[in-house]
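Issue: ligand-bound run for adenosine-5'-triphosphate - logging full I/O for the record.

Environment: standard queue, default settings, no custom constraints.

Inputs:
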Amino acid sequence: MLATEELSVTYGNILALGGVSLRIEEREIVSVIGPNGAGKSSLLNAIAGVVPVASGSIEFEGQTIAGTAPEELVRLGISLVPEGRHIFGGLTVAENIRIGAVARRDRNAIDGDVERVLAMFPVLRERLRQPAGKLSGGEQQMLAIGRALLARPRLLLIDEPSLGLAPLVVSEVYRAIADLRAEGVTILIVEQSATRALEAADRTYVLASGSIVMAGDAAELRAEEGFEDAYFGYKARDP
Ligand SMILES: Nc1ncnc2c1ncn2[C@@H]1O[C@H](COP(=O)(O)OP(=O)(O)OP(=O)(O)O)[C@@H](O)[C@H]1O
Ligand SMILES: [Mg+2]
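Outputs:
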C-alpha cells in the first residue's frame, strides 16, 4: 500500500532522515520505534506531506506522492494524527471531531461517521459540548484519532499515541487501533516506547539517527543481537 525508497528529510543542514526504505501492506499494523530525535516524526510528516522530501520517493497505492499537498493526501486516503495531538482547546469536542471532515464532499455521511467515532470512544460523547482543552491527555488522544477518522482514511499515521498516558489509557488507545485495523484501515505507528508498539504491530522497524537499523516482527527483533539493549534503552525512557 505504501512504500518509501531512500527517503531523506533535511532541515537546513540537519539530516533528520537519511535514506529510509520501508513498506506497508494493506491492513497491516506497522510500527517504527526509536529514541528522541531518531527521525520518527520526520518520517510520518514527510509521508503526510507536512514536511518536504529532500530526496527519495514515496509511493501510495502505486502512485508517487512525494511533493503532494497535505489536503490532497487526505483526499487520497492518508490521515495523520500528529505528535502532541494539536487539539483546538477553545473549540468543543464536537467541533474538533468535525474539523477532520473539512476535505470531504459527501457532507450527508458525516453525521454517521461522527456516530462511529463516539461508539469507539464513548467518553467523548459525554464531553461533546465541552471545550476540548478541558479533556485529559488520554481523551485528547482519542479525540485526535477520532478527528483523523472523519477523513475516512485508508492509511492512518499515528505519532506517539501513548506519550504521557497512563498504562490503562494506553491500552484503550491500542484497543481502538486494533478495532480500526479490523475495519480495514492500514496503520503506521511511531513510538518511543517499544513495548506496546512492538506487541501491537505485525512488523516493526527500528530507527536510529535517521536510518533503519533493524526490522522484523516482535519475535524476530527480540532474537536480534543488540535489540534487547536498544529495546531496554527505550524501555528505560518509558514513564
Ligand atoms: N523543524 C525542525 N527544524 C530543525 N530541526 C528539526 C526540526 N524538526 C526536527 N528536527 C531535527 O531532526 C531530527 C529528527 O527529529 P524528529 O522530530 O523527526 O525525531 P523523533 O524521532 O520524532 O523524536 P521524538 O521522539 O523526540 O519525537 C532531530 O535531530 C531534530 O532535532
Ligand atoms: Mg517525534
